Amino acid sequence: MGESEKLVSNLFQMARENAPSIIFIDEIDSLCGQRGEGNESEASRRIKTELLVQMQGVGNNDQKVLVLAATNTPYALDQAIRRRFDKRIYIPLPDLKARQHMFKVHLGDTPNNLTESDFEMLARKTDGFSGSDIAVCVKDVLFEPVRKTQDAMYFVKSSGGMWIPCGPKQSGAIQTTMQDLAAEGLASKILPPPITRTDFDKVLARQRPTVSKGDLEVHERFTKEFGEEG
Fold first, then answer.
1. Is the pTM of this model over 0.85?
2. CATH for 96-142+195-210 (1.10.472.10, 3.10.310.30, 3.40.50.740, 1.10.8.60)
3. What pLDDT, in 10s, does the model give residues 80-90?
């Protein structure tokens, strides 16, 4: 009892001692929902009260402490907490250019043969996707070369001595499997193929965006009432 609000107080004290500093609270609605709700516990009320008290002093006397918070349910926030934040900025879903960049960032240096036009096409096909949706998509795609290697019935040996999965008609193709190569002590010599545009098409065919039109309408309505555009 009393430990949670003490942690809140300690957090702000640390921020002041290390100023300039930023306190970021993700999913702030889980801490600061509407007061008086039936499922609100006494501990939750005390945390909320302590947060309000600490935020009251932020920004005064040039303390150089900035408090940022994020939520997907802005209407669930307690009004007093909402008033403590001078700016309430709506961050919309990523646009086409942002999505194109996200695909590149998440792929990183993973071997692939995608062209700039491929990335543009992926961005166009993922209208309505959030950054999280794109991350999930790429994460799924990263497994495709492994799946191809596991299922391959033919491999070709490269000039560098690596075994690469291929089709039966490819020049130099040898009928074997990953398990057979591993049994011969060649597991470290197996090289999965690079990621292709087809791999992305396969994953996107079964993936849907997680943010609904109704969700977006709620955020846009809140922005008109209380916020500003990002």
1. no
2. 1.10.8.60
3. 888 888 899 99
